[in-house]
Amino acid sequence: MNDGCCAPVAIPGGGILLNGLKPGDDGKSLILRLWGAAGKDASVDLAPGSKSTLHLSDISEKPKEKITGPVSVPAWGLVTVRVE
After folding, report:
1. What does the alpha-carbon distance between residue 57 and residue 31 come to, in Å, rounded to a whole number?
2. Model pLDDT for residues 16-29, shown as the tens digit of each residue
3. Over the stretch 27-53, which tens digit does the pLDDT of each residue have?
4. Could you say which of 16, 29, 69, 83 has the lowest number of CB atoms within 10 Å?
5. What are the residues facing 17 on neighbouring strands?
6. Would you list the domain boundaries of the chain?
């Protein structure tokens, strides 16, 4: 994870809000919940710290698909991202 000097992610632009931010239950990750607040499908490039790895996740907080580009967030929907 991040060494504490910088924000672990940046959410540029509008329409996608950071709805939740918490340490992962496993103590090894940070869990982000993104909300499509604009009422239309949107995508965002997350900018992790140089040592961070991003995965899509769900309420289990387990890593699913590795994120290598923009994250799609549906209108009024939630997307869970795991940062390691």
Report:
1. 9
2. 999 999 999 999 99
3. 999 999 999 998 999 998 886 655 789
4. 69
5. 35
6. 16-83
Q: What is the pTM of this model?
A: 0.82
- In whole angstroms, give the CA distance from residue 83 to residue 39: 26
Strand partners, 12: none
* Count of residues making up the chain: 84
What six digits make up the tokens of 54? 């991003």
Q: Are 73 and 34 in contact (CB under 8 A)?
A: yes
Fold observed for domain 16-83: Immunoglobulin-like (2.60.40)
Q: Record the tokens describing residue 45, joined without a space.
A: 């490039």
Looking up tokens 């090894």, which residue turns up? 28
Which DSSP string corresponds to 1-60?
---SSS-S----SSSEEEEEEEE-TTSS-EEEEEEETTSS-EEE-----TT--EEEE-TT
